[in-house]
Structures
1.
Amino acid sequence: MKLFSKTTKFGMRGGVMLTALAGLAGLALVPAAAPAQTIAVPTADNPFGLPADITIFGKADPDRRTATAVVNGYVITGTDIDQRVALVTSASEAPIEGEELLRLRVQVLRNLIDETLKVQAAEAAELKVSAAEVEQTYQQLAAQNFGTNPEKMDEYLLSIGSSPSALKRQIEGEAAWENLLRRNIMPFVNVSAEEVNDVLARLEASRGTDEYRLGEIYLSATTENRAAVLSNAQAIMQQLQQGGSFVAYARQFSEATTAVVGGDLGWVRLGQLPPPLATAARQMQAGQLQGPIEIPGGFSILYLINKRQVLMADPSDAILSLKQISIAFPPDVTEAQAEIKVNEFGTFVESLRGCGDVDGAAAQFGAQVISNDQLKVASLPEQLRPLIMNLQIGQTTPLFGGIEDGVRVLMLCGRDDPEDAGAPTFAAVMDQIEQERINKRAQRYLRDLRNDAYIEYN
């Protein structure tokens, strides 16, 4: 949509890259007469006692190796990686090639390894996900995307170089992890009534302050791999800024448990976020990205979905009464002719004296009018929302559109603002605190599965 006034447009696309760490090969012998070297002593910040200056022996080129693995006896093939990469790149508007694609394959392999560990752990705990459960979820996704023709899901996946089995494997991994968390994590997470009441009291005290609905892609990092993860996060950010689906890539690559919901953190206040994330969110506008942002334990990329005030009505929930006034152009119209017509249309719109004047005047001018008195602000395109929300009754937006689709304006004829939102329920607050604690324990649980696994790389 093109506005005939200056606007800002934000776009995203996703793609996650992770470079592997180089190995060491060979040792140099030091003559006995050489002066003694200072030995690095292990500390809390340097647990391995690594020296400040090190020499790498041999050429490090890990991304060039064949990216396959055997995880506790389960083989992850090159085809598995190809098909999962196809799922990711299908959401990209621009091709992912060269070194970028190699790094993406490494990250996909890591995800497949984690997925395999989750499936194996669920089977060992007698929590295996049945084929019927996987098929049911697959069919639900097919119906959501292809409506009355869910069988087209198979055709689509094959057309992009993936397969139904690749998506079903991802579904199985997510379901297996959910089963494990439900048995091994959730029963041991407790939240007291006092904690919930304290949160509710603080909410009431902060009434009217801003809260943010954020999406997050979280990548964990340690002292040893910090540089590699940072480089990876920067590559992710670069890809997202080129446009695409934040939700799709958060589902594939975020290491937080919110990955299953596309990285959506829900509505949060700045005080609930780590200070670096709070600082970034405070400066963001809806639709913007920030990152990578270093936080304890790793890096985050944030996407601001929306913003509102605590316990106050959400302006995007307002119900509008609008009239759309539009003109169309014949197929053979020239640019000069269209410009004259647009100028005339602009003059006509300025002459309107309110909603009651629209229908008759538009008929005389030759414009079309469409009315809708039950339109929610949230259902409008993002570019139009701030324009509409700042209008008074009888005022219009700037002209927008083009020669092919026609030029139009929207006139505000009424607005029913939503009532102030009440405090969240006791149960909702308790659930939010529980989810935060489950998320932390789940990350530790997955780390333990990795540490106990036997993984052979080919």
2.
Amino acid sequence: MKQIIKLLSVIIVSAMVSCNTAPETKSDSTTETAAPAGGQENVSDDVSQKDVAKVAVSSKDHTTLVAALKQAELVTALSNAGPFTVFAPTNAAFDKLPAGTVEGLMKDDKKENLQNILQYHVTLSALDATSFTEGQVLGMVNGDNVTVNIKDGKVMLNNSATIVASIKASNGIVHVIDGVLLPPAKK
């Protein structure tokens, strides 16, 4: 009887060990697919509301702004969760700058200057145009401030750019403006 119990014990233990041992698998790194490069801006979604970056990209009136955002490497940042309020100058607004200004800022050695100017057009919140008040001061992403003025019912920024349209986005709001905001000179 002891021999039968020993034999059954060996059979049971062998069966348990063989059931718990998974076959060895090898990982072949050549068959793995790499994640797509880029950030949130590379997500293709034609159903959901556009983020602030995609609002600009889809506008024929903001091609200069989009080119500047790409050169300054800020598209990914504006594609993130936010919330953002973006004051988006039109192509015509950029055309008002002195000749050669935009072209000069688009050079690699001027990237920091371009980033500073573009970040002066963004604040971290989602502010509807109706929420602005006379004399309101907005802290911008670059660390400087913009002052809101209300003239004849129109919202102006630093008395130099007027909001001409507003577009809600999934991560904030885009206010189309008719001028480029230039940060104050550093002291």
